[in-house]
Amino acid sequence: MAEDTSKARTISVGTIARVEGEGALRVTVKDGAVQDVELKIFEPPRFFEAFLQGRHYEEVPDIVARICGICPVAYQMSAVHAIEQVFGLQVDGALRDLRRLLYCGEWIESHALHVYLLHAPDFLGYDSGIAMAKDHAAIVSRGLRLKKAGNAMMTLLGGRSVHPVSVKVGGFSRVPSRRELESLRGELLWARDAAVETVRWVAGFDYPDFLSDYNYVALAHPDEYPFNEGDVVASSGLRISVNEFEQHFTEHQVGYSTALHCTLHGASYLVGPLARLNLNREHLTPLARQVLVDTGIALPLQNPFHGIIARSVEILFALEESLRLIERYESPPAPALPIVVRPGIGMACTEAPRGILYHRYEVDADGVIRMVKIVPPTSQNQSRIEQDLRLFLPRVLDRSNEEASLACERVIRCYDPCISCATHFLNLEIRRDQ
Amino acid sequence: MAVFKFASCDGCQLSILNLEEDLLALGQALDIVYFPEASSAMRPGPYDIALVEGSITTAEDARRILTVRQQTKRLITIGACATAGGIQALRNWADVESFKQVVYPSPEFIQSLSTSTPISEHVHVDFELWGCPIDKTQLLRVLTDLVSGVQLRLPGDSVCLECKRRGNVCVLVAKGLPCLGPVTRTGCGAICPSMGRDCYGCFGPTEGGRKGPGFPPNTDSLAVRFHDDLQLIPIEVLRRFRGINGYADAFKQEGEKWERKK
User: Fold this and answer.
1) Does A161 touch chain B (CB under 8 A)?
2) Read out DSSP for A107-129?
3) For residues A310 and A276, is the Cβ–Cβ distance under 8 A?
4) Farthest CA pair distance, chain A
């Protein structure tokens, strides 16, 4: 919809597609210069942090999963690790491996969805993955089969891929036998080759030349590519334990959005696959490194459009990691550790597909939740997305309203924003005062 | 076909995308003309079929669902939020103003109704798919039946029947877990007992399992069993029923009964 008057020019696009959740973007342009950029999230708030108060700790993994249908495992993992900290519980060995394996399944499923169905259509000029399938049937089928491999892992370990049911404080309600896990191996070997092909495929896309100076934030672990454990590190040099998170990262509310904005020492930063890959490249597998060399991709990646490359590399990593974990798996003596409830406060941060997800819980002596704080990845990236749009917009202001809007939508999709998590789809409105 | 989202986690829409190879076949059998989560092409109505995810939690959404209804021949809700208000319906027993203050530093900016309500409280719904999330096989069956002009029907009996078919040992009897399976609608494949735990009611109350169509499940007897035999205190019985589908009639009434006892 375009409206031209002598005074002001407003461009508004009904809805930005292929993101999870509902929101809008409003851009104000005056005398050819960008004035305000507001990423407006109007996904209705669901008040999870409020209604978790008064629930029993055992119910938490089932409830927080419902914050996001795309990354329920991330919510379950941050929750159980935080509550285990309250109870002084350390989950190790095969149970720890199974949690990594479940998380690998979610990364593969979520990344394959974004790479093939949500993001690649932008580079190949289609409205959707389904439309893309008419001309690129073999490629879309490969993506769907990859996604299915991730879902199959989640279903085996969690009963189903959306809102798995087996995760609990202390471990799982049921663990698989070695034989059950081995049944996945054949498909995972196919998927590993398909993931190599995916990296080669996306490396050949035509990317806008747009470099940004990011402060990347991710978990870092001395021995491994991070999922559930590690310090919070930033490319600016910050390195803190998860328990210090709230001393450095602060959430504030902006009037136009139902998602809170989170900043690090008052400034924007970036979480997610780009940040993780850049900060943890030494923990990539030899095959993943070799594919990067073969395709001429040099780290660190500093172009937000390269998010699709980072996601593809992480699919490959997650598949290799899954095969490694399955190879060494021996059933644990019990599916879960015994629990002794004690009151206290616990925090945890884990790597959701879209970046770090922080949870803090206060639990009372009866095991009832008294206080919850949740900081999802998209609310952390929100200010950075606005900043990137501000930097990107001058390139497209001379284009028609419709083209400029489409270009902004493409920028937003690079971050794979999950607005349901942040509250919390997008409407794009560009106001031009001339 | 169009797919609309209201207050939800996107998990039921993801179940559509999780149809994988069937998704491409579906794209050929049906024209999916409005599905913002999956496609930038968004065509205006009217639509033959609308799948609706999510519950009504804002005044704007209460208006939007009326427009969706006007443009649609067959409106089908997908999931616990659209069908029963969802987990966010827990606000229906609380003070939403205080909820806002827990989550937001400036609650005055937050526009939200004091309730989360199912789509059927606002407009006529042609068919409801239960589940948190929906089962993709049930979805595929309903869509196939719609395209073929078959009358829509899904089983309304309890999880227990499926659980027995799978050969599970009863977790209520053998482990003493407060399993909601006896009063919960089938459709998930009895996954919780199969994973060694108690059902928590994702598919909502059964229908007609006990006395025939239209009769609610015997939640009363199950709740008494939880209390008398499993030694749950009233607030624990209340929490069992007031969960994912806590605002569905049968669970709502049972929960309120135990709220008065606590």
Assistant:
1) yes
2) HHHHHHIIIIIIIHHHHHT-SBH
3) yes
4) 75
Q: Which of A12, A48, A66 to mutate to test the interface with B (most CBs of B within 10 A)?
A: A66
Q: Residues, chain B, total?
A: 262
**Could you say which architecture CATH assigns to the domain B2-148?**
3-Layer(aba) Sandwich (3.40)
From residue A301, how far is each of A37, A281, A377, A384, A407 by CA, in Å? Answer: 25, 11, 19, 16, 21
Is residue A130 within 8 angstroms of chain B, CB to CB? yes
Contact B167, B240 (CB under 8 A): no
Q: How is B9-64 classified by DSSP, letter by letter?
A: -SHHHHHHHTTTHHHHHHHHHS---B-TTTBS----S-EEEEEEESBB-SHHHHHH
What backbone phi and psi angles, to 5 degrees, belong to B82? -70, -30
Each domain of chain B, given as residue ranges in start order, spans 2-148, 159-261
DSSP B146-165: HHHTPPP----SBHHHHHHH
CB A337 within 8 A of CB A89: yes
Q: What confidence tens digit (pLDDT) does each residue in A369-427 have?
A: 999 999 999 888 988 988 998 899 889 888 887 888 888 888 888 988 876 555 433 33
Residues A320, A377: Cα–Cα separation, whole Å: 25
A131–B200 CB contact, under 8 Å = no
ipTM reported for the complex surpasses 0.85: yes
In whole angstroms, give the CA distance from residue A405 to residue B211. Answer: 57
Q: What is the pLDDT of residues A35-55, one digit of tens each?
A: 888 877 667 778 898 889 999
CB atoms within 10 A of CB A311: 27
Residues in CB range of B108: below 8 A, 6 or more apart: none
CB A233 within 8 A of CB A282: no
Contact between B133 and A144 using a beta-carbon 8 Å cutoff:
no
* pLDDT at B204 > cutoff 90: yes
CA distance B172 to B143: 35
B7-42: burial string, b at 16+ Cβ within 10 Å, e else: bbbbbbbbbbbbbbebbbebbeeeebbbbbbbbbbe
| DSSP element (H, E) containing A76 | helix A72-87
Q: Is A376 helix (H, G, I), strand (E, B) or coil?
A: coil
Sign, Cα dihedral of B158, B85, B251, B98? positive
- Positive or negative, the CA dihedral B101, A420, B1, B41 is positive
What H or E segment, with its residue span, contains residue A432? Answer: strand A426-433
Q: Could you give the CA distance from residue A299 to residue A293 in angstroms, rounded to a whole number?
A: 10
pLDDT band at A142 (very low <50, low <70, confident <90, very high): very high
Structure tokens given for B135: 């089962």
Confidence band, pLDDT 50/70/90 cuts, at residue B1: very high
Check: CB of residue A175 under 8 Å from CB of residue A332. yes
**Residue B205 structure tokens:** 């109350």
Tell me the three state secondary structure of residue A69.
Answer: coil
User: Is A128 near chain B, with CB under 8 Å?
Assistant: yes
pTM: 0.94
* A329-333 contacts, C-beta under 8 A, 24 or more apart: A329/A94, A329/A97, A329/A98, A329/A178, A329/A181, A330/A94, A330/A178, A331/A94, A331/A175, A331/A176, A331/A177, A331/A178, A332/A93, A332/A94, A332/A95, A332/A98, A332/A171, A332/A175
Contacts of A18 in chain B (CB under 8 A): 36-40
Is it true that the peptide bond before A164 is cis, omega within 30 degrees of 0? Answer: no
